[in-house]
Write a structure and sequence with these properties.
The chain has 140 residues and is mainly α. It has nine helices and no strands. Helix 1 (6-29) packs across helix 4 and helix 3 packs across helix 4 (53-79). The protein is elongated.
Amino acid sequence: MPKVGMPEIRKPQLIQAAIKVIDERGFAGATVSVIGKKAGVSPAIINHYFGGKNGLLEETMKSLIREFFQLLKKELAEEKKESTIENIMIIVKTSLSHSQTQPEVVKVWMGFWALAMHDTVFLDFNVFIPNDSIQRLWLN
């Protein structure tokens, strides 16, 4: 029986391991076995929590997108700019923030976009955008 509270620990651990492995080996080399080894857990845990490699990759992208939108929401709330140009500059600033421009994160973003051109699981970008989309952030 799984320990209580382990998903909250293991899922972020596996997402970080996936980012590191994608950085080192690319998407094709990011196997469940290699990611599990990097995270120090059995590859079966990835299947348990994410249903396999594609589920983990999808959750990794969702995680990066959530992080981006959280930063964007914070920046928009702090700046409270009136003009569209100023708000666009906040989006650009957020896109170029430290968390979004770390080399390993950039590799994941680039790999995701390349994968999305050929894999129907990742083709529909809209499934990754959180409920509080840019439009809602903009209007608040």
